[in-house]
Amino acid sequence: MQQPNDPRPHWLDHPANVKRLYRGFIVVLALTVLAELLVHLHPHFEVDALFGFNAWFGFLACLAMIVVAKGLALVLKRPDTYYDDKNDE
Amino acid sequence: MNDLVLHPGLVLIVGALLLPFLRGTPRSVAIVALPLVVLGLVWQVPDGAVWQLRFLDHTITPLQGDKLSRLFATIFAIMAVGGGLFALGQKSRLEVPAAFVYAGSAIGVALAGDLITVFAFWELMAVGSTLVLWSQGSEASYRAARRYAMIHLLGGVILFAGVTGHVVQTGSVAFTHMEADSVAHWLILIGFLINAGAPPLSAWLPDAYPEASWSGTVFLSAFTTKTAVYVLIRGFAGTELLIWVGLFMVFYGIVYALLENDMRRILAYSIVNQVGFMIAGIGIGTEMALNGAAAHAFTHIIYKALLLMSAGSVLLMTGRRKCSELGGLFHTMPLTTVCGTIGALAISSFPLTSGFVSKSMVSQAAADGHLLYVWLALTAASAGVFLHAGIKFPWFVFFQKDSGLRPAEPPATMRWAMVFFAFLCIAIGVWAEPLYALLPYATSYEPYTWAHVLAQLQLLLFSGLAFFVMLPFLKRTLTITLDTDWLWRRLGPALYTLVQKPYAALQRLLGRELNRTGKAADAMVQRHYGQDGRLARTWSTRSMALWVLVLLAGYLLLYYA
Fold it and tell me: How many pairs of residues across A and B have Cβ atoms under 8 Å apart?
């Protein structure tokens, strides 16, 4: 454990190491999809029998949720001091 | 009535009331030992009615056991142990006793055999949790506690009306399965759903919980919503409406958590999200789905408490709660980082964590029932959990850009509490059989098949990819997102002001008019009956005699006329 005033950088502070982690992540992503060639996934419906269903469905679902959230934010976003004037009850 | 069996909930409540008399080491020992004793007592409760009393012409059953009751009472007791350990260093002397009253009442609901007992403990929970919130001591928490109490008292009134109606209609107070087929049952369902954090009042939860102390939120996260899940499993399993309510909660939690900047409010929204999975399972209503809902409540209490413990540690050590002010804490808080990350993986249902073995039962039930759209929604939501809690929380708090903060790890008791719950998250994840054995229905569900593990890894890792691809859009800003609490924090007061001004003007006008009329009447009375008034003057005997004569003469005339 690093002490509170230790000036030495952590290995995660090196951009090169972070880049290695990202590359490793991409490799793992590819492996999980390719593994589908070896493991039968027991689909329950027709749509989840498509190749890489969980991968692309998960990815697209997340994109959609972020887009919806940003859209909602256009209408409902306020500064976080919004309720601070204490007129709230 | 079997006098030998103690009521675990009452033991915890009475113990909590004695806690304020202890100081120092005996107090610390009592805080950890008391819920352990209660855990032992929970397992002494046999099947069937144990305590029965006569109350207002009804036979009530304050203590009744079965597998479902014991499962929830067990996790509530475990939560009290872990939460108590975490809160040992809490300066407020009110918080832990209040939290134990709260936990004891939750156990009381879980072990109640009739609706009157459910209602009594339900209200006591509201009192205990309000005090936990209040004990934080700031102006903000005091106001949040008032709003929180208001919503829960409203829920209590609705529940009471429903229970009363149910008793009048059926003549029975027993707490058994109900159909949403009468006004009374709808009221009971609504009362239960308010505590579950269901729409439209869901905003009470993310409004209130993050205002408690660093340890208070850990307690709050566990009991209210999960007792609601318990009573819904017992009372309204298979009510189709609950599927849609649950799915709404799931996505509401994700979307609001994605926009949130306060680290504990992110986790509060994610409580609504996780309870949504349970409610959807209750709506599906098959044995697999109900097992899944119950198991998920069990594992959720542990990993959500763990997440909030890591957030509480950060709050205590840095005094900061906004993601935009945090980051890079892994440098000096490695244990907190690891424990928080284990909690984040568990909530995301990563293989080898507790969430994987519980949440998948709900999805499996949807697939078994050929509910394609429900299954698709649950799958999308599982991806979204990783997005809003699994990565977002640890990333913005412990990693992302370095905030320059170098806080130390929290005190030892807090570290032990986190290690204890992190251990449970992994232990249940790798060895699920003990948990499955506790579930209400026998199950042969096997979570670890190659297909299931691979499908889940694909889903989660590609959600992770989506997070990093979209990171520029997820940058934290100093904003909040309006929620339904706006209705009672802004619209309500605004309407009041709107109505109050004309009302006051009307009141003034009426007052003036009344005043004028009153004065006129007063003057008239004064004129006629005052000192010199015609009717109050002292008259001379002479004129009196004259008037009597006139009257008698008039009478005589009229009599003979």
Answer: 168
